[in-house]
Write a sequence for this structure.
């Protein structure tokens, strides 16, 4: 398998010409480290640090999981957050709010 | 080392000497002894493998897929309803090009509940992309499991080794368990080009649109066609090392035959006895046992069919609304032959109904009567 550069931000696109170029199974030849699924997001959760009580519910319920706790405050990994809003839904102190995604 | 063991234990020993590394399995009659024996082998340290207890056959095959994708040699076994429950995952294993090997004990589909021999369960999976081998003896079962890994890991498709419920699964025969050293020589470790690796993550089975899905299917059909030669080669190599070979099909006294019986599985042994008996009475009769059903050995069937005047295909299975499934395949292999060969279809032995000498004699009487061929004749229906 060809090694890909994990540091590149952009997905690597490999174009095939013939069925002979295809791997036998449908496997991505480039590393999936390049697939930043956060690009699917249309709305973005924002943490309001002052309201956060460090209850960990958002951390627990994030289905990706892309919330880590740093000094008691949730930090969202926007590379992989798809904007599902579950963290906002479960937060008892309304410390996470939606913002429009800007691109 | 020779042991007197059941067909089920022949399966377990086959997986053991093939050094299966991951065995996810769920028990079902009449397969249970296969997994009991394997789990004992693992717990006693005779077999270095991970035995995974799962909550269903669907999960068993899903776990096989995961294990095979990381490059582990993977084995499971099931039967009947269990195989049917795996159906979705059977497609997945084949389309992901994972060489999982499993044993299926041919058992009837319910209702009514019936645990006896009937091939409809495995034949209903014929379009899933799995190789299918129908075995006649316990020795052949063990040998075919070893051969399947050799073939499947080369062409990257999964394989099913199939044996009749009770007639083989629970009947003891003398079986030679090959020396591990010799098996290791025959079967090197599995090392696929693409595998799941957390250090170098890749997406498997991701979305592929109409632009390339079609080509991936084309490659599977090519692999199946290539498998015919790979099976022959693997069988020849096996014969050199172990002294036993089976071929894609087995011809029995067919050279000067006018009437040819086409059979599969354990009924072949009884049918061979009948051929011998009828030969003594001066009948020119022979037999063709189809061992490999997927890929279907069309050329071999044509080669043998060209020698004879009439053919009777005996099916222990049925495709409702059509006919016996081996019959369909034989007929379609012969439809473009220059000389038209009459092919008669017979259904017999469903749900474990014994197929005795008289059953085969009745079939031969039909074949010799001069009656025109019929797609279906039922043998031994109580009227």
């Amino acid at each position: 398998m060809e090694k890909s550069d994990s540091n590149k931000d952009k997905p690597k696109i490999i174009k095939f010409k013939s069925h002979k170029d295809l791997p036998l199974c449908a496997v991505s030849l480039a590393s999936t480290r390049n697939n930043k699924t956060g690009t699917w997001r249309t709305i973005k959760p924002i943490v309001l640090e002052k309201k956060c009580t460090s209850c960990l519910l958002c951390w627990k319920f994030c289905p990706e999981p892309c919330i880590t706790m740093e000094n008691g405050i949730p930090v969202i990994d926007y590379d992989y957050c798809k904007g599902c809003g579950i963290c906002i839904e479960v937060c008892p102190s309304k410390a996470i709010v939606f913002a429009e995604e800007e691109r | 080392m020779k042991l007197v063991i059941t067909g089920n234990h022949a399966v377990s020993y086959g997986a053991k000497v093939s050094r299966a590394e991951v065995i996810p399995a769920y028990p079902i009659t009449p397969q249970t002894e296969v997994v009991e024996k394997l789990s004992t082998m693992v717990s006693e340290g005779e077999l270095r493998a991970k035995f995974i207890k799962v909550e269903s056959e669907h999960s068993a095959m899903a776990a096989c897929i995961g294990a095979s994708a990381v490059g582990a040699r993977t084995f499971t076994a099931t039967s009947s309803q269990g195989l049917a429950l795996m159906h979705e995952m059977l497609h997945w294993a084949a389309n992901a090009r994972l060489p999982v090997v499993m044993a299926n004990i041919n058992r009837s589909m319910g209702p009514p509940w019936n645990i006896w021999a009937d091939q409809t369960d495995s034949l209903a999976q014929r379009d899933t992309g799995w190789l299918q081998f129908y075995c006649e003896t316990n020795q052949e079962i063990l040998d075919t499991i070893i051969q399947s890994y050799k073939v499947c890991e080369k062409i990257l498709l999964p394989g099913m080794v199939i044996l009749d419920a009770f007639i083989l699964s629970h009947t003891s025969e003398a079986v030679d368990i090959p020396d591990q050293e010799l098996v290791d020589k025959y079967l090197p470790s599995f090392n696929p080009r693409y595998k799941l690796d957390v250090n170098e993550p890749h997406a498997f089975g991701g979305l592929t649109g109409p632009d390339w899905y079609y080509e991936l299917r084309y490659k599977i059909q090519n692999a199946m066609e290539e498998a015919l030669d790979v099976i022959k080669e693997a069988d020849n190599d096996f014969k050199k090392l172990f002294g036993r070979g089976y071929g894609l099909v087995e011809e029995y006294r067919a050279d000067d035959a006018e009437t040819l019986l086409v059979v599969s599985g354990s009924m072949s042994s009884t049918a061979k006895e009948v051929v011998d008996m009828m030969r003594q009475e001066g009948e020119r009769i022979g037999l063709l046992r189809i061992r490999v059903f997927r890929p279907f050995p069309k050329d071999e069937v044509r080669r043998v069919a060209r020698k004879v005047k009439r053919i009777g295909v005996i099916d222990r299975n049925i495709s409702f609304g059509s006919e016996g499934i081996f019959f369909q395949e034989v007929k379609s292999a012969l439809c473009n032959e220059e000389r038209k060969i009459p092919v008669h279809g017979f259904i017999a032995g469903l749900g474990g109904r014994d197929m005795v000498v008289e059953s085969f004699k009745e079939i031969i009487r039909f074949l010799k009567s001069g009656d025109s061929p019929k797609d279906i004749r039922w043998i031994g229906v109580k009227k």
